[in-house]
């Protein structure tokens, strides 16, 4: 985080407190004040994250924001310069490697290996005996409609197929925590849908899933919690709902009358665009405003209240620059 | 920490085994391994053929003549008998020639020791009581033939054969030393070529791995020390397979070409012990050089970077080889001691010493010292590897030559 825990909003503190005190769902990941420098570059600056066991959690931010470095620190691939991280209560994540599955952003497989061997090898790295890895690997491939890949070399597979093999290799040892770095990157819409389903199934089975992404709608659809990261800082970490609540709901009002005393009842931030008025939902609610509009004979033609999406929350929390970077990443990926 | 998490990882050795097993099998069943095997076979085959031809030429030209030092009639009878046995009966008997010129009356042992003429052996005495004078390693080769020739010349064949008295020629110390130096040189050269070849292979294997982007998968799952150890020992195992294949081919060529190991003087510690030391010193030399190359590989992102970075090491290894070669020519000197102590030259220097000196205790000491150096270098290399390998990974690879120099300030954040 870019500010100490004590300086954060009451709502954020409440979210973290709720998480910490939820003994039925202990924390899978807890990070406090993670800092990482590379030479003179501050890559990650005081990241705080709490992820409950069994949750789906997203790290949301543009490329270069520090997502991968954060994940690498959480996994023990690199050590933080400052701060602490605990995975299942363990402050040396490497020592519980059998409990973790990791799909790095830069996908990597041995081109000469057959699909089933690649999965078994990845399982073996996490302590799964090779024979069992082969058995489970064949089963996983069959279940995902990739039986043809069992005996096929990686070099003979399409990029998407190889990515699926690597993902299955990440899961073959049945980890309690699955960490996916940009898992949707490079997948077509159909495979993205399959992956979303797979992530949900994992969580339903009690596995904690944490993934990084620069695509907001994946995080919005899947995650119960998100960390918004920009420039190495995490200005927000908590539930998706709480992030959306950071921005008041927006009201869109259409009236028959153009003028009248009822205009004085509209909130100060109301602005007129054509036939519509736009303004934030008053803290007191919509009821008193409705009464004033009816009494003032405004002639309400339509009124809608829209809750802010995660995208709006991201813009509000991370700022316009980060949002533009995120959109540029999405555009670049779409063009790839 | 719960009990489940207490053992929830592979030990470094278990993880190294997983990596080593994969690397070993992957390399063994790759096309590159075939070329790896074939590469050194070319010089072996060419060397074997050249050795075989040379050996034949040598046999025909000079060495396989037996001088006869008897009176004229007996000499003629012996020579006729040998000619008849060889040409009419097809018995493989080398030509016999009478001693001629100044050496005709010299003592046979002195003629051979001082190389007065090109005689492989000399027969003196009489056909009834022949005396064979020859170097110890040639004695058994000629003894039977001389007995048969003498019996034929004396007219007693095939009912009885005379007892052939023998007189061994003691080779001079200078000859022994000169010949053992040749053995030592050959051993050093072989050791140098093998370590350089395999050190280069382990390096390219690592670079390929970084290119495959598998390194982060490994780094996330197991200690980087294990990756380092696994790769190092997998290549050592591959090299033993290679050596076994090359050795077998070498033995076949040796058996088929008629080339004689006697071309090389027996090393001071004897051939079996010399081969054992060669294997041990090869392993030590390879592990020392391999850990150095792997450390370089951890810093390099591209093949071009590897070439740039490994060039000084290759040059250094060449200098080390020359240093060890120079030291070999000065046994017992301070330079030889320095070459035996300096870890990078120690395997070469000690193999040369095994060819030249009988004492075994310096080898025990040197092997312990080299093992210590291997442990230190492997540990240091693994530490460097762990620190650098994730900082010069895929992003560095994309940045090409600038990747290494940018590394310190690299920003792997994404």
TrEMBL record, chain B:
<dbReference type="Pfam" id="PF12698">
    <property type="entry name" value="ABC2_membrane_3"/>
</dbReference>
<feature type="domain" description="ABC-2 type transporter transmembrane">
    <location>
        <begin position="179"/>
        <end position="378"/>
    </location>
</feature>
<feature type="transmembrane region" description="Helical">
    <location>
        <begin position="24"/>
        <end position="50"/>
    </location>
</feature>
<feature type="transmembrane region" description="Helical">
    <location>
        <begin position="187"/>
        <end position="207"/>
    </location>
</feature>
<feature type="compositionally biased region" description="Basic residues">
    <location>
        <begin position="398"/>
        <end position="407"/>
    </location>
</feature>
<keyword id="KW-1133">Transmembrane helix</keyword>
<keyword id="KW-0472">Membrane</keyword>
<feature type="transmembrane region" description="Helical">
    <location>
        <begin position="268"/>
        <end position="289"/>
    </location>
</feature>
<dbReference type="InterPro" id="IPR013525">
    <property type="entry name" value="ABC2_TM"/>
</dbReference>
<feature type="region of interest" description="Disordered">
    <location>
        <begin position="393"/>
        <end position="414"/>
    </location>
</feature>
<feature type="transmembrane region" description="Helical">
    <location>
        <begin position="367"/>
        <end position="385"/>
    </location>
</feature>
<protein>
    <submittedName>
        <fullName>ABC transporter permease</fullName>
    </submittedName>
</protein>
<keyword id="KW-0812">Transmembrane</keyword>
<feature type="transmembrane region" description="Helical">
    <location>
        <begin position="232"/>
        <end position="256"/>
    </location>
</feature>
